[in-house]
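U., I forgot to send this yesterday:
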Amino acid sequence: DIHFVTSLTSFETDSRELDFDAQLYFEPMNTTAHYMHNYKRNRIEKLRKKASNITNRMFGYSKKIQSFDYNAAWEEILKKPLNTKTYAGAFIDWDNTARKGIKGSIAKNANPLNFRKNFKILYKNALDTNTPYIFINAWNEWAEGTYLEPDTKHEYGYLEAIEETVTEYQAIEK
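Result:
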């Protein structure tokens, strides 16, 4: 069988009538767009950001790149309802300035220890709600700074966090 899943990104719902089997939270896009009210900007702040972007482009600096707190994003992720048709979403880190330049955003305080702490809770939530999958963004999305693939900075830290969590809960089930 083929299993079709739609992603909830900056759009909270998928209005297409394509009869998907399930949906997943694509993080951190879903959370920063819909759940982090301090991260969202009102109209005046958006205008200031636009003016700042123009100034940054003109003078070649980027002091005003938008950022959000990694743990605050995870706090919102962990509150989201999960079930057999709504899959959990996780993310490693976020920095899409390589792709978007000064229009990008950066997660502050992302590291394997914070990921481990939050992923452990998400994994338990998924087990408790019979959620069959957790979608992790991403294996090697270098242009958005979210990748599980080992690197020289964190080595295998993120992969080890997942392995430790899964191993711990498998031992509990036995």
